[in-house]
């Protein structure tokens, strides 16, 4: 399972860089949509790194249930928040899931902190 978080983190980072290049060089946006895209890219980049951290922590602590829950929150939260922002910018329609995605991202950070505080199983 730790490898899943490492792979998702790496692929999310790859996608963040690719989308950043597209946004900078090929996508024509008004100022409001440009800010939205930058917010989504920032969130995706940070949470790609968070998924890598989850994978590394889970690798070092087998059975780290809280770390795996954090990884799930980061993956689903990134998809919900970033995906909803991109959908709004590209389609002009709100999916209405960005707040839930953001909440999952925050929950992921809390779970990661709790996982880091727990003593490794003996």
Could you explain how this protein is built, in words?
With about 120 residues, this protein is mainly alpha-helical. It has one domain. About 85% of the residues lie in helices and about 0% in strands. It has four helices and no strands. It is elongated and about 55 Å long.
How would you summarize what this structure contains?
83% of the residues lie in helices and 0% in strands. The protein is an all-alpha fold.
Helix content: over 70%
- Global Rg: 15 Å
End-to-end span in angstroms?
20 Å
Number of helices: 4
Low-confidence stretches: none
Structural class: mainly alpha
* Average pLDDT: 94
Strand content: under 5%
Number of discrete domains = 1
Q: What letter string, H or E per element, gives the SSE order?
A: HHHH
Overall outline: elongated
**Number of E strands:** 0
Main β sheet profile: none
GO cellular component, one term: plasma membrane
Family: Belongs to the UPF0382 family.
Organism: Teichococcus aestuarii
Transmembrane segments: 39-57, 69-89, 95-117
Any chance you could write out the topology, listing elements then pairs?
Layout: H1 2-25, H2 31-60, H3 65-91, H4 98-117
Helix pairs in contact: 1-2, 2-3, 2-4, 3-4
Membrane topology: Multi-pass membrane protein
Organism: Teichococcus aestuarii
Signal peptide: 1-23
């Amino acid at each position: 399972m730790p490898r899943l978080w490492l792979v998702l983190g790496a692929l999310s980072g790859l996608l963040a860089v690719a989308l950043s290049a597209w946004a900078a060089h090929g996508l024509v946006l008004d100022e409001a949509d440009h800010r939205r895209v930058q917010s989504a890219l920032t969130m995706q980049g940070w949470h790609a790194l968070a998924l890598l951290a989850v994978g590394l922590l889970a690798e070092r602590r087998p059975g780290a249930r809280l770390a795996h829950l954090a990884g799930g929150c980061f993956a689903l939260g990134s998809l919900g928040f970033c995906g909803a922002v991109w959908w709004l910018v590209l389609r002009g329609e709100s999916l209405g899931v960005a707040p839930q995605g953001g909440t999952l991202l925050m929950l992921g950070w809390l779970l990661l902190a709790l996982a880091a505080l727990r003593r490794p199983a003996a």
